[in-house]
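Q: Hi! First time doing this. I have a protein sequence and I read that you can turn it into a structure. Is that right? Here it is:
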Amino acid sequence: MESLQEEMDRSVKSMININVKLRDIFDSAIRASFPELVNAPLAVTPSQQSKFGDYQCNSAMSITQMLKAKGEKVTPIEIANKIVKNLPENNLIEKTEIAGPGFINVHIQKNFISKQLTKLLVNGVQPPVIGEKKRVVVDFSSPNIAKEMHVGHLRSTIIGDSICRLFEFVGHYVLRINHLGDWGTQFGMLIAHLQDKFPNYLSVSPPIGDLQLFYKESKKRFDEEDDFKKRAYQCVVQLQSKNPDFIKAWNLICEVSRKEFKKIYDCLDIRIINRGESYYQDKMIQVVKEFEEKGLAEVDEGRKVVFPPGCSIPLTIQKSDGGFTYDTSDLAAIKQRLHEEKADIIIYVVDSGQGIHLQNVYAAAQMIGWYDAKVTRVEHAGFGVVLGEDKKKFKTRSGDTVRLIDLLEEGLKRAMDKLKDKERDKVLTPEELEAAQKAVAFGCIKYADLSHNRMNDYIFSFDKMLDDRGNTAAYLLYAFTRIRSIARLANITDEQLHIAAQETEIHLQHEKEWKLGKSILRFPEILQKILDDLLLHTLCDYLYELATTFTEFYDNCYCVEKDRQTGQIVKVNMGRMLLCHATAAVMAKGFNILGIKPVHRM
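A: Yes, that's right. Below is the predicted 3D structure, encoded as structure tokens:
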């Protein structure tokens, strides 16, 4: 647990969410102006155009409607004037203007922004204060044992990892769970095939090189050979009764798969704990018993089913032959996460097609009293499918599902081609070139996914994701490298920048300096929005906007002046160099949350 002193230190160093601070100020003014209104509407947003100030409060029009409903006649402009009159003293607002039908335009004090930038430079990019630390469980990736990871697993893996990184950054305790498909009837045929192909598997580890081929061979026999099919079912019974020889066979198969999955997780820099369906086997008996004891289970044609409130499809918690189902394991999993892990937040990063099933599971868990939705946040972060450039489900030319390892290798090849086209192989060392190749390949694959609204399907295109124009990782990585190089080319060290941050006041006189300073400090506001809605494309849009705002600043504001004849540095504007440094620091933290590794030279 964090000590009170540590918590206070963290609070002092934290970046301030300006939007939240403004909302608190306007909330106070609205309550002072209209104490009779309960839950008066509060709308504060960044201004879209600089001529309307830096932020706008648009509450006056909604309050007019509320008062009108109470029989009071008053105009939005009168309401806006009253709100402005009751604004409490603060160190944030320079001035306000009332415009149009009652918009309140807010101008922020330059001195406030300057001080916040200095704080960021001195303390580093610290997370905003988010209140009490919570226990968060994120269920993501979840491939099936004995099957290769394919492009369909890409979205869950990338989105889930990024959600984990965000919750970890702001200070929550996060448990990253890989809910592997590692149990079920398919293991009967796999074990039966293992016994035939490697009869001495108990003493000599079987050299299963291609588990996908092994799976196809066993499935073919299962479909075509009646004797094999009977043996496969007997193997399932032996496995479920925990026969040690069959448990060893099952473990061997699982281990081959886990090693293959690990290669992909290592490539993508994913940390995850394997906890498959097998983990919940013993807990399922208790789940069925609990639903029966509370009178919530019904028998339907021999099956035991549960009808959660508001759901049209029942959950089958036990089959007529006594076996369990996915419904049972998902109920056992949510109960374990709530009661044993003591989760305050559970996020399922699973494709949108599972939406109805998960709603049923959540409804059943609430019905039986495992959690209260007002206290515990249980949420499905659904996502659309990956499409090919023909806008159909992404497949190989032969119609097979695209293997994830092939996709990553293709990404590496194309990234190297791109770097060589730019002749980077002539200026980078072999080690730097390899680092740049990995940064571009894996960064572009991740960013292409995360920069789209996860609810939508997205078209997978290497050409688009490797394009260094527009909102792509390639563009942002090059922009970041360029920003980082400005100080290096001016012979200014990180140590000098750190000293300057404590001694140099950042003046924001030029409109492009002002625009960049505000953009840098919107970072906590962006993070808070994603913590609420789990839509990571907002962070991608912000990083792209920050990079383009920086370009405007750099094109208009000299950071370093050189002699035109000699090329010697004549003058360095240290305040502007610090703005470069702050931009790079926020971009680096944004990349980290997205799971992208920038390199210093590209």
